[in-house]
Specification:
Blueprint (H helix, E strand, L loop, with lengths): L1 H16 L9 E4 L1 H4 L5 H13 L9 E3 L5 E4 L5 E3 L6 H10 L3 E6 L16 H11 L3 E5 L12 H14 L5 E5 L17 E3 L8 H9 L13 E3 L12 H13 L4 E3 L8 H7 L2 H7 L8 E6 L2 E7 L5 E7 L5 E5 L11 E4 L4 E5 L4 E5 L4 E6 L1
Parallel strand pairs: 1-2, 1-10, 2-5, 5-6, 6-7, 7-8, 8-9
Antiparallel strand pairs: 3-4, 11-12, 12-13, 13-18, 14-17, 15-16, 15-18
Bound molecules: alpha-D-galactopyranose.
Length: 376
């Protein structure tokens, strides 16, 4: 009797206290931005090793996501196989899981992926079962050639079909919708079973592209929350096309946006400066805040913008961004942000407590740079 009670309690406890999937924005690494079609088994193992040795796993980067070009052919039963770059996906999943990490994969609802490999069209349930059998924990599902077989208005149903197939496997698999923000996906992405959905076309490792994407996200905040996130695409931090001020802006803005933090660089070869950005726990804590409230722009003037994000403990993240081509002062009036007294702050890039701030508070922000504060 006692044993039966204990067992019943354990079942109850695991249901009651199990974290819902993607309760905070997914964090990890994805192969595409740096490796593209050069990804293979060794690259993925090296990324997993580097997540552990760099400390990034312990900072929250858990998903190791293989993007496009792993796919081989289907056999006579229609079962998808890997190509020669991935000799044994189950063994790779075991390796990744053995490091306390999770493995992600990629497919398309169309006949072909964006890079022209085998997609999941008419094999949705079979592929979901294959992924679950391999031990896959995350699927990015990329529209691409689906446009040849479906209308855009079919998107919600097409994504729901794969969400259902994934759920039917009984394995918790994060479902990432990738259709570039078409059809106002933020309005139906969660209902279609998405844990995150891309809100834009592809990012590039360039200031203009990254900042266009990031700063255009204002207004989408009401669609994000625990379990379902807006995804302005994966990180370019450390890929070499921007300077460190620009990468700090990229990372800070993504944290304000409650965006997934999927590093897209070569983790095995990153510089200390790149690691210092990706591993900034103060900024990660903003991104991963348990209330899951996406930030918004509260002020802009010329190239200067102030963004605010409300946090679970009643404090706020405040991002002072300078999109201009030279250093400029930015002034914050705390009263306009709802403070009757000027708040105390921590500077999240200087890693310094600033004490009580002045009213108004003026700080010089580097060209393309950011000052990121947590105020209370
Ligand atoms: C699309 C996606 C990218 C990447 C490539 C792979 O462009 O938006 O993120 O997955 O396909 O082919």
């Amino acid at each position: 009797m006692k044993l039966a009670c204990a067992a019943a309690f354990l079942v109850f406890a695991s249901l009651a206290f199990a974290q819902p999937i993607a309760a905070t924005p997914p964090m990890g690494w994805n192969s595409w931005n740096h490796f593209a079609e050069k990804v293979n088994d060794a690259v993925v193992r090296a990324a997993a090793d580097a997540l552990v040795s760099s400390g990034l796993r312990d900072a929250g980067y858990i998903y190791v996501n293989i993007d496009d070009t792993w796919e081989g052919q289907r056999d006579a039963q229609g079962i998808i196989h890997t190509n020669e770059k991935f000799p044994d996906m189950k063994a790779l999943a075991d390796y990744v899981h053995g490091k306390g990490l999770k493995l992600g994969i990629y497919s398309s609802p169309g006949p072909k992926t964006c890079a022209g490999y085998e997609g999941s069209y008419q094999h949705e349930e079979q592929d979901a079962r294959t992924y679950a059998a391999w031990g896959i924990d995350y699927l990015k599902y990329d529209w691409c050639s689906a446009r040849q077989v479906y209308k855009d208005s079919d998107m919600p149903a097409v994504y729901r079909k794969m969400a259902h197939a994934l759920r039917s496997t009984g394995r918790p698999i994060v479902f990432s919708l990738c259709q570039y923000g078409d059809e106002a996906v933020w309005r139906w992405g969660a209902e279609s079973g998405g844990n995150l959905w891309r809100t834009t076309d592809d990012i590039e490792d360039k200031w203009d592209r990254m900042s266009d994407i990031g700063f255009s996200q204002n207004g989408l905040e009401r669609f994000a929350g625990p379990g379902h996130w807006n995804d302005p695409d994966m990180l370019e931090v450390g890929n070499g096309g921007m300077n460190d001020d620009e990468y700090r802006t990229h990372f800070s803005l993504w944290a304000m946006l409650a965006a997934p933090l999927l590093a897209g660089n070569d983790l095995a070869k990153m510089s200390p400066a790149t690691l210092a950005i990706l591993a900034n726990r103060d900024v990660i804590a903003i991104d991963q805040d348990s209330a899951g409230k996406q930030g918004r722009r509260v002020w802009e003037e010329g190239p200067l913008e102030i963004w605010v994000r409300d946090l679970a403990d009643g404090s706020k993240a405040v991002g002072l961004f300078n999109r201009g081509h030279r250093a400029l002062p930015i002034t914050v009036r705390w009263r306009e942000l709802g403070y009757s007294q000027p708040p105390s702050a921590r500077d999240l890039w200087a890693h310094k407590d600033l004490g009580k701030l002045a009213e108004p508070y003026t700080v010089t922000v580097a060209r393309h740079g950011v000052v990121m504060l947590r105020v209370r």
